[in-house]
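Residues determine shape. Take a concrete instance:
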Amino acid sequence: MAENLIVPVILAGGKGTRLWPMSRSQRPKQFLALTGDLSLFQMTLKRLADPERYDKPIVVTNAEYRFLVAEQAQEAGVELAAVLLEPTARNTAPAIAAATLVASRDGARLVHILASDHNIAMDDAYLAAIDTAARAARDGRLATFGITPTAPATGFGYIEAGESEASGAHHVARFVEKPNEERAKEMIAQGNYYWNSGMFLFDSAVFLSECRTLAPDVLSAAEASVKAAREDLDFIRLGESEFAQSPDISVDYAIFEKTALASVVPSPIRWSDLGAWDAVWKESGADADGNVVKGPVSLFNSKNSFVLSESTHVAVNGIEDAVVIASEDAVYVGKLSDAQDVGRVVKALAKDKATAKLTEEHRTSYRPWGGYSSILIGERFQVKRLFVKPGKQLSLQKHHHRSEHWIVVRGTAEVQIGETVQILRENHSVYIPQGDVHRLSNPGKILLELIEVQTGSYLGEDDIIRLEDTFGRS
């Protein structure tokens, strides 16, 4: 890593629920394409493709998302410096401390912390804010980005800016918790309050020194977890027991609200954390009636509404101030102005055994080799659509409780059952008896699609005994 370049650290381990039913713990919003063709994580990577300012990024995520991170980075054409895997959720302070230790170990000085799920306009104002923050960091300050407020938002924390600095930043006078609307209006009228964006830029040595003084337990756990880290394919697994010793605390509370070195960079940029469906609606460009539609949707006699469908055609008539989100297996309908309440709805669904799975998994599950969609589930049988990317293969595996039938719909399949290997083409099928060791591969140049019919006494995903695996899951 070059000392004169900024090392970006992307936090990509969050499991947002307020964009349900599209965002779920299995595939949260940072990996979804909500405002364009790229996912929010990929858009973040693209903003960092500036060799004059940035070195290769470090991504902090968890083991569940490691292949999503690698795959989406590859699709975006961005090479990563490292992917750190958090063994357990401990909020942002230990994650940032561990990533900063890794960056500084490789010679980095300036580190830029940013979220993976924000929507930011890449313009001159944004670049000017980055350069101002870098100057402040070189002066020994811990810079945070304060977004110029455009409305009295009550969903954000605020930063009060104090005296100005030579870099163009300002001392942080104080941080303010999420206010009510009246207080938010007062702060905006005063003119020196900014939304807290959750982005930071600092010199790694200065930040780690402040951690040692203000949050020694956090730094101690981060240092121990980095020392105990092990490489797993292209990932770095932080030490599990060591990382778990850290307090569960945000970097705001642990460092920035205590340090005397905090600076805020006023940032008049177009920014949204896309924290709820009303924010996605605002960022998506409404038509003359205030409506935004995405996917197979027919909208009639309606105003100021957001309707999204993933696959099923949705026809809506005579609504106003509404949000309708239709995923493959669930539909949410509510007031657009009450979009913040989706999180409360998801918590209620998660507590009910009948609906808890809908808050975690999608009908389509993605794997490093491709994925599968659940089509039909009955007593002692299940039907799935499998898709395998060219050149990829599933693990060598067996099942104790089920047998499987595979029918090739598209592409070419290489199937190993025991010691026998055969090639299947379109309309060919094969039977895998219960308990037999088997493996599926795609030796072709196009996507392989199969229909899988499972039969047996137990059909859960945990009935997989992996004997060998290209992706380190055996």
User: Anything to note?
Assistant: The chain has three domains: 6-272, 277-345, 364-468.
